Amino acid sequence: MFKKWKLAVALLAMVGMLAAFGTGCGDDDDGSSASEAPAEEAPAEEAPAEEAPAEEAGGSSDIKAAFIYVGPPGDAGWTYAHDQGRSCAEAATGATTAYVESVPEGTADFANYSRDFIDQGYNVIIGTSFGYMDDMEALAAEYPEVIFDHVSGYKNNGTNFGNTFGRMYEPRYLSGIVAGSATTSGQIGYVAAFPIPEVIRGINAFTLGVRSVNPDATVEVVWTSTWFDPVVEGDSAQALIDAGADVIAMHQDSTAAGERAEAAGVRWVSYNSDMSAFAPNAFLTAPVWDWCDRYTQIINEAADGTYSGGAWWGSMADGVVDLAPIADDVSEEIKDLVAEKKAGIIDGSFHPFTGPINAQDGSVLVAAGETMSDGDMLGMMTFVEGVIGSTG
Reduced to 3 states, what is the DSSP secondary structure of residue 318? Predict the structure, then answer.
């Protein structure tokens, strides 16, 4: 599936989200959402959430929201974070919610499950993977009375089909500060999914954070072409460790990279959710998702008729992205620095992509005093200085 859309993302990145954000871009998150977990053919109605009492609804008790997941919720990771958000939004609004898990991209399954939900009276459909985007666009035209919100893509219609994502580069930068302080070899490994703008943007933000406290450190990237494959991701982490990396970062859904780091006695920055329980000695911190407020917002807007079907790119200030707790053995000086930079991100006084920033080849990527635009960030396909590896 990624062979079909990876190049399209890189090309459409310059135009798709640009229309959505008025700058010119495409996204990211352009797939970051996906995992390659196998589909389970459980009917959608087999995984309903219990209906909340009407008095808790806050005006949303007539909303039935269905969530379609690319993987199983499990105990950590991308889909786990979405399911936590679904449960929280259900409690906050009183809406009825349900979900179906492990629905593969690029098949008829997504449309079939969506129609099944709609036949049951569900009037909000939320798809949590990039590869659902085109199906959601078509379904939104077919069912104008149903709201479709797509996580991670760039298409929307300004009415009943919108896209949602978060500025994950913000906590990525903060996690880089922690990683840069933890390395003694100056070699950090990054187990990366696919060379698309979302992932490249995250690597760059992380590297900028690393080099803000450790200017000579490097970040070596290994591409896995996976969102969820513990064997491949674990082996990739091991290869980086064998090459001298003493900190491992990642952009996938499994905990395999952390488990290899734990076994090797090196440190680990996880992703999606706090995965510290899976490698407690290796864990440093993690950029994490919190979908509760955004899903609550979508449901409430559906209930009061204000959902607009546009593009929403939330930030740390919105609460959709954050940094997990930092390991106890990280110095107070670094924790204070992270807190200072986080406060600056939230109040707008600091932006990770403010120049001077050089590209990997030494050319100027962002001039001194300038800040990269949303369009340029959303279409990012160039590594910054300090990254070892290729974008394609």
Answer: coil
What is the C-alpha separation between 265 and 281, in angstroms, rounded? 8
> Per-domain residue ranges for the chain?
2-167+290-321, 169-288+323-388
190, 250 Cβ separation under 8 angstroms: yes
Residue 34: name the closest of 253, 347, 216, 246 by CA: 253
| Strand ranges (E), the chain | 64-68, 96-100, 124-127, 147-151, 161-166, 187-192, 218-223, 247-250, 267-269, 283-285, 287-289, 311-314, 321-323, 357-358, 364-366, 387-388
Report the CATH fold assignment for 2-167+290-321. Rossmann fold (3.40.50)
Q: Which CATH superfamily is domain 169-288+323-388 in?
A: Response regulator (3.40.50.2300)
Q: Is 341 in contact with 171 (CB distance < 8 Å)?
A: no
Output the pTM of the full model: 0.84
What are the C-alpha distances in Å from 69 to residues 47, 66, 178?
A: 12, 10, 31
Q: Rounded distance, CA 104 to CA 140, Å?
A: 19
Q: Do domains 2-167+290-321 and 169-288+323-388 have the same CATH topology?
A: yes
pLDDT by 10s per residue, the chain, length 392 = 333 333 333 333 433 433 333 333 333 333 333 333 333 333 333 343 333 332 333 346 799 999 999 888 988 899 999 999 999 999 999 999 999 999 999 899 999 999 999 999 999 999 999 889 999 999 999 999 999 999 988 899 999 999 999 999 999 999 999 999 999 999 999 999 999 888 999 999 999 999 999 999 999 999 999 888 999 999 999 999 999 999 999 999 899 999 999 999 999 999 999 999 999 999 999 999 999 999 999 999 999 999 999 999 999 999 999 999 999 999 999 999 999 999 999 999 999 999 999 999 999 999 999 999 999 998 899 999 999 999 97
d(CA 340, CA 336): 6
* Distance in angstroms (rounded) separating the CA atoms of residues 293 and 267: 32
Would you give the DSSP letter of residue 368? B
